């Protein structure tokens, strides 16, 4: 039995559901867990080697993905709130952590993303920011949207990472061990 609740066209994941995917350095999916498949309405054969952007919702500002790529290409982890779209056109909000995976020479070889349902309070606040960023991208360009985001964060006297921690009250997994504990307990 599915643990998903459908609210209008939005999917709300159960709190214990963890969505996991792994991409190569070009952003193509090389692994996803059964929850990712269930939530996104894909079969494994349909999604492997596809760009992760296949689940990107059109409402998501490109600014956020540019920021994400800038951070992870440096070999650093990042947390973000993302609105994704399923294969059937429904959507869901996820609080994700993306961590670069490195080889013995410390070279990034892939990225692992794991996420869970974003809290409603977080969605309410981030949705306003994302609508503003998307509007700026549409009316001007992505560089203007990035400048707006930087100004927005400076006014809060926060980095993006600090802003995410503030929004989510540090609800991310402290380490992959926490994810494994939750996944095994399920």
Automatic annotation (TrEMBL):
<dbReference type="InterPro" id="IPR035965">
    <property type="entry name" value="PAS-like_dom_sf"/>
</dbReference>
<dbReference type="Pfam" id="PF08447">
    <property type="entry name" value="PAS_3"/>
</dbReference>
<protein>
    <submittedName>
        <fullName>Methyl-accepting chemotaxis protein</fullName>
    </submittedName>
</protein>
<dbReference type="InterPro" id="IPR013655">
    <property type="entry name" value="PAS_fold_3"/>
</dbReference>
<dbReference type="InterPro" id="IPR000014">
    <property type="entry name" value="PAS"/>
</dbReference>
<feature type="domain" description="PAS fold-3">
    <location>
        <begin position="29"/>
        <end position="113"/>
    </location>
</feature>
